[in-house]
Amino acid sequence: MRLISSLCLILITAIAFSCGGDDSNSSVDAPPTIDAPPTIDAPPPADAPPPDAASNSVTCGAETCDTATQDCCLDNTSGNLNCVPSGTCGMITITCDGPEDCGSATDECCASDAGAACAPPGGGMCDAQLCHVPGDCPNPGDMCCPLGTTGISACFAGACPG
Fold first, then answer.
1. Partners of 65 in the beta sheet?
2. Nearest to 49 by CA among 158, 131, 162
3. Considering just the CA atoms, what is the radius of gyration of the chain in Å?
4. pTM (2 decimals)?
5. CA distance 73 to 77
6. Domain ranges of the chain
7. What digits encode the pLDDT tens for the residues 45-78?
8. Closest to 82 measured CA to CA, from 59, 110, 52
C-alpha cells in the first residue's frame, strides 16, 4: 500500500512539473476574453456612507429628497416613505437623515415619534440620533445601524439590534 501511495505522489509531481508552455516562445495563441462584466455581489460595508450623505439631501426609502424643496414624508398608515413638496406632508416628516443636514455643528439629527429634525443635544427631543457612519454617533463604540428598508440609520450602543 505504501508503494502505491509513493507511486501516486511521484506521478502527480511529474505531471505537475511537465505541464506548462514552451518558455522560449513568448507569443500568445489568442487574446484573453472577458465573458461578462464583473458583478458586485456584496452590499457596501455597514459603516460606508450612503450616496445621499450630503447636506442638501435626505434618504427617503428608495428616493432621495432635495431638502431645499422637499420633505421626506412617512405615511403612518401604509408605512410608505415619499418625497413631497416642503411643508405639505401632513403626517410624519423627516427633514434630516444625519448630522450633515443640520445647520449648526452642535445640532443632532434627532428621530422621535413626530419624525426627524435637527435639535440641540440633550434637549429631550431625541429618541434616536440618525447617522450614516459610526463617527456620526455621539459616543465612541456606538454603531450606525440601518432601520429596516427605510434607507435611514440610527445610532445604537455597542451593536445593531438583531
1. 58
2. 131
3. 28
4. 0.63
5. 12
6. 57-157
7. 554 444 445 568 999 988 999 989 999 999 888 8
8. 59
